[in-house]
Amino acid sequence: MKEEPEILASIACNLDADILSAAFPLLEEGRVEAIEWSFDTLYWTAQVPYWFTEMLLAYSQQKRLIGHGVYFSLLSGKWTKEQQHWLEQLKQLSSQYSFDHITEHFGFFTGQNFHSGAPLHVPYTSTTLRIGQDRLSRIYDACECPVGLENLAFSYALDEVKQHGEFLEKLVEPVNGFLILDLHNLYCQLHNFSISYDGLIALYPLHRVREIHISGGSWEESALVPAKKIRRDTHDGAVPEEVFQLLELTLPKCPNLKYVVLEQLGSGLKNESSRARFRQDFMKMEALVQKSRGSLHRQGENQFLPLQSLQPGSVIEDDLLHGQQLQLSHILETASSYEEACNLLRSSSLAESVWKVEKWEPHMLETAMSIAQKWKRQG
Questions:
Q1: Is the separation of the CB atoms in 320 and 192 below 8 Å?
Q2: What is the rounded CA–CA span in Å between residue 158 and residue 121?
Q3: Fewer CB within 10 Å: C terminus or N terminus of the chain?
Q4: In whole angstroms, how far apart are CA 79 and each of 84, 115, 292, 353, 372?
């Protein structure tokens, strides 16, 4: 019997013609060892093609299908009917497919429209911690498999960057959950805040990393800081060489790693040259994964299942947090300039609060406005 690889070379594969065209030769050759599916992007699809369902089932039957949520908005202060629907759909899908794990993004979505907001940072407080832990327990209750969170690419200030890993660990602890360590997200933080890899990676609970993402992104000029380029996690470009270097450095540090996933949006795979580059990126990732097999010092595999029974009680909400999130969303989505955004923040309930808006880096507030306004246009 063929031995199961320790780490599986995987791709994020959704119902998207451009992604599927890029990935098909790799799938046909049997090189894709697992698939990550953003399952909630199909919640509103009237009919899923038979062949796509069959592909998902084939990986599911091998316990090599993992689910990645996009739209749950884990840290929103208010519980919504859309979140309840999201959980009901996940429960139904989990009876159809055998997910090896389910993950979601850190943060909350701007705007009141569930499907057209930008995922952004929240303050690290006991309130956001309780809300996040409550939501994760509900996700586990729906899927009954390991549950994890992905690190965020965006922060407003260096202190937030340094505290992110510790807060993620506190969030997943009650469900004995895990982390997706997105290395392009890490690359964004390293560049945008001029912090060293060794200094930042030491602040993450690497024993909880079960999955690694690699992807590409884009650069954005700052109008406020001359010659300053902001790295954005737009997922529409090829994987930078620096991210492959981060992968090589990080693989040996994660004793419970199981999946390494290549992500790219279909919008960046519109022609054959970009699709060929995607396959080249996969093969480069695959080679690093194969090189690392057998070198991890595993100390008894963590199954990342709750260590005690979880019974979600009443939904935890916070009206103050919800109101501040709505205010922030409105400011980011409507301010016509950085100066206007600053004035609006100073006169809002976010001023002199746990959000610490007074310490936000100007170029990151500028970036948050750009992200929020782009998502609003797409909504």
A1: no
A2: 13
A3: N
A4: 8, 15, 42, 22, 21
5-56: pLDDT as tens digits: 789 999 999 999 999 999 999 999 999 999 999 999 887 676 889 999 999 9
Tell me, what amino acid is at 260? V
State the pairing for strand pair 147-150/178-182: parallel
CA nearest neighbour of 22 among 276, 287, 284: 276
Per DSSP, helices labelled H in 31-182 are 50-61, 81-96, 126-143, 158-172
- Taking alpha carbons only, the member of 236, 266, 218, 237 closest to residue 370 is 218
- State how far the Cα of 362 lies from the Cα of 379, in Å rounded to an integer: 26
SS3 181: strand
Per-residue DSSP letters for 198-237? HHHHTTS-GGGEEEEEE---EEEE-SSSTT-EEEE----S
Q: Report residue 213: phi and psi, to 5°.
A: -105, 140
Tell me the C-alpha distance between 134 and 353, whole Å.
Answer: 23
